[in-house]
Amino acid sequence: MAEQEHATICPWCDTEIVWDEEIGPEKHCPHCDNELSGYRTLTLGDDEGDGDQDWKDAEAGDDGGWLGDMDGDGYRQGDLADLAARQSVEKVLEDQDEVPECPACREYMVLTGEQTVTEGFEPVVPKALGRPLLEAPVRFSLYVCPACFETSTKLSPQTRKKLIESLAGK
């Protein structure tokens, strides 16, 4: 019966402590007397087989696809396009007057357009005012998150001004 060795690295002195299943794990580091249990300890070893096999499979090309995106120069395909897209997003954000955060992932959102609603908008008339807060045409700004593609609309600055004037009674 072959003994399976386990290795523990002491987080304080970086010493590798090897133990086998018959003796069991050390409770304290024999070099610095640090406690070797809990969140402060890194245990190396694979209970279900040879951990080196994963590296051999990756080197042989059986990697589940994570290396399959590499081109002949060793660069992952898509990274250059992703980098170019991020640089474009940064330039666009610099020109925007408003830069809202995405409600889903908190990335900054890009203004992609404005929409004017002239038909089909039915304003609500609050009893307290006796008149609608907004009337058509109503203009919305559409923002899109470049990370998760969540969309969000806001009133355009012109429509916001109309809303504030309506609330002020003008």
Outline the structure in words.
This protein has 170 residues and is an alpha+beta fold. The protein folds into 2 domains: 5-60, no CATH class; 97-168, no CATH class. The protein has helices spanning 52-60, 79-95, 157-168; strands spanning 5-9, 16-20, 42-44, 110-117, 138-144, 151-155. The strands form 2 sheets. It has a 3-stranded antiparallel beta sheet with strand order 2-1-3, with no helix packed on it. Strands 4-5-6 form a 3-stranded antiparallel beta sheet. Strand 1 and strand 2 (16-20) form a beta hairpin. It is elongated, with a radius of gyration of 31 Å. The chain starts with a strand and ends with a helix. The model is unreliable at 54-70 (pLDDT under 50). Residues 44-72 are annotated as: Disordered.
Short summary:
The chain is an alpha+beta fold and 170 residues long.
Please write out the topology.
Blueprint: E1 5-9, E2 16-20, E3 42-44, H1 52-60, H2 79-95, E4 110-117, E5 138-144, E6 151-155, H3 157-168
Antiparallel strand pairs: 1-2, 1-3, 4-5, 5-6
Order of helices and strands: EEEHHEEEH
Strand order of the largest sheet: 2-1-3
Largest sheet, strands/sense/barrel: 3 strands, antiparallel
- From the structure provided, what is the oligomeric state, counting identical versus distinct chains? single chain
Q: How many beta-strand runs?
A: 6
So how many helices? 3
**Percent helix:** 10-25%
